[in-house]
């Protein structure tokens, strides 16, 4: 079973950037698609991006709300998936989670089987 640990969140001003890290262990990332989700209190957990494992074609998907500003990537040697966030907006404030499924990419939280603990991103002036 894969374990996930997010890090890299923090407090940043509008227009700033952050790079979130999802460190994985316990399994070969080739067979896992890693997605990023975010959640604001009282709202549904929202899919942000997905990067599929090599076994599934290295496909990448983004939610429409983050296209052009968010970039996900993978370092197989380090077993780490990254989410680079640029041009941060107030509405990006949320707890960000990485999640894994041993299948094709999905931005649907109901198809995720493994979750990290979350890292807080706060955009404030």
Structural write-up:
It is a single chain. By secondary structure, the chain is mainly β. It contains no helices and 11 strands. It has strands at residues 3-7, 10-12, 18-25, 33-39, 46-51, 60-62, 70-75, 80-85, 94-101, 114-115, 119-123. Strands 2, 4, 5, 6, 9, 10 and 11 form a 7-stranded mixed β-sheet that branches. The chain is globular, with a radius of gyration of 13 Å. It starts with a strand and ends with a strand. The mean pLDDT is 96.
Q: What is the topological layout?
A:
Blueprint: E1 3-7, E2 10-12, E3 18-25, E4 33-39, E5 46-51, E6 60-62, E7 70-75, E8 80-85, E9 94-101, E10 114-115, E11 119-123
Task: Give a nutshell description of this structure.
This protein is mainly beta and 125 residues long. It is built from no helices and 11 strands. 0% of the residues lie in helices and 47% in strands.
How confident overall, as mean pLDDT?
96
Q: How does the overall form come out from the CA principal axes?
A: globular
Rg, Å, rounded: 13 Å
Structural class: mainly beta
Oligomer: single chain
Instruction: State the helicity in percent bands.
Output: under 10%
Spans of 5+ residues with little confidence (pLDDT < 50)?
none
Q: What is the number of strand segments?
A: 11
Number of helical runs? Answer: 0
Largest sheet: 7 strands, mixed
| Share of residues in strands | over 45%
What pattern of helices and strands is seen along the backbone? EEEEEEEEEEE
* Measured distance between first and last alpha carbons: 40 Å
């Amino acid at each position: 079973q894969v374990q996930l640990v997010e890090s890299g969140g923090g407090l940043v001003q509008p227009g700033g950037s952050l790079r979130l890290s999802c460190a994985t262990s316990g399994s070969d990332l080739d067979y896992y698609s890693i997605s990023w989700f975010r959640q604001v209190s009282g709202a549904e957990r929202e899919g942000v991006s997905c990067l599929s494992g090599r076994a599934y074609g290295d496909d990448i998907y983004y939610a429409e709300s983050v296209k052009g500003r968010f970039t996900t990537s993978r370092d197989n040697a380090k077993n780490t998936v990254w989410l680079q966030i640029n041009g941060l907006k107030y509405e990006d404030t949320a707890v960000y989670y990485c999640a894994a499924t041993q299948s094709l990419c999905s931005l649907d939280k109901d198809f995720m089987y493994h979750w990290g603990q979350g890292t807080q991103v706060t955009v404030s002036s």
